[in-house]
Amino acid sequence: MGEQTEFKPGMRAPNNGTYIEIGENDFHMGITNPKQIQMKAGDKFPETTNKDRKWTRKGNE
Fold first, then answer.
1. With contact defined as beta carbons under 8 Å apart, do 40 and 15 qualify?
2. What is the C-alpha to C-alpha distance for residues 35 and 37, in angstroms, rounded to an integer?
3. Which of 9, 12, 37, 61 has CA atoms 20 to 30 A from the CA of 53?
4. How far does CA 56 lie from the centroid of its chain?
5. Residue pLDDT, tens place only, 13-28
6. How far apart are CA 24 and CA 61, in angstroms?
7. Chain Cα centroid distance, residue 46
8. pLDDT of residue 61
9. Per-residue confidence of the chain (61 residues) as pLDDT tens digits?
10. Backbone angles phi, psi at 19, to 5 degrees
């Protein structure tokens, strides 16, 4: 089983890095100006812009 890649608000970040908001339609249309946050391992994820979004680690860090 691999490492989790999507996180809900209130969950803790597994690693240091930049995390970005993703949504239900982001694979087709993308999110315009997605929210990005800098996290340290163990920090709790903040609320997202809407209930259908989650956090994921920004690629290639």
1. no
2. 7
3. 61
4. 3
5. 999 999 999 987 655 5
6. 24
7. 10
8. 55
9. 677 899 999 999 999 999 999 987 655 566 778 899 999 999 999 999 888 899 999 985 5
10. -115, 150
Sole residue written with tokens 């994820």: 45
Instruction: Name the CA radius of gyration of the chain, rounded.
Output: 11
The SS3 call for residue 4 is coil
pTM of the model: 0.82
Among 57, 50, 46, 44, residue whose Cα is nearest residue 6: 57
- Residue 22's beta-bridge partner residues? 54
**Amino acid of residue 7:** F
Looking at residue 19, its amino acid is Y
Query: What phi, psi does 38 have (nearest 5°)?
Result: -95, 125
